[in-house]
From TrEMBL:
It comes from the Bacteria. This is Sporulation protein. InterPro entries: CsgA. It comes from Heyndrickxia vini. Pfam families: CsgA.
Length: 82
């Protein structure tokens, strides 16, 4: 699995209480050969909106924790959503 998608999957594990979060997590789990661009292109509008919201929060959290690696990895996906 792409490193960026691994960070995304781990972040999404905090949001499995939402149906859309669980759907995206399952897609990540089953898409072992995709890169982040391919993954984002296969998201529905609802999934993109959900992920956009979640990533904004997760990136802020990573910044607060001074985890620059996580910020960079999650930001790669976030930029593709825009």
């Amino acid at each position: 699995m792409d490193t960026t998608l691994a960070y995304l999957r781990e972040s999404l594990s905090n949001h499995l209480n939402h149906r859309i979060g669980e759907e995206i997590y399952k897609k990540l789990h089953s898409s072992t050969n995709q890169n982040e661009l391919e993954f984002v292109r296969n998201l529905s509008e609802d999934e993109t909106a959900f992920l956009n919201s979640v990533l904004a929060k997760e990136i802020r959290y990573a910044q607060d924790e001074q985890d620059q690696t996580r910020v960079t990895q999650l930001n790669e996906v976030y930029e593709l959503l825009l």
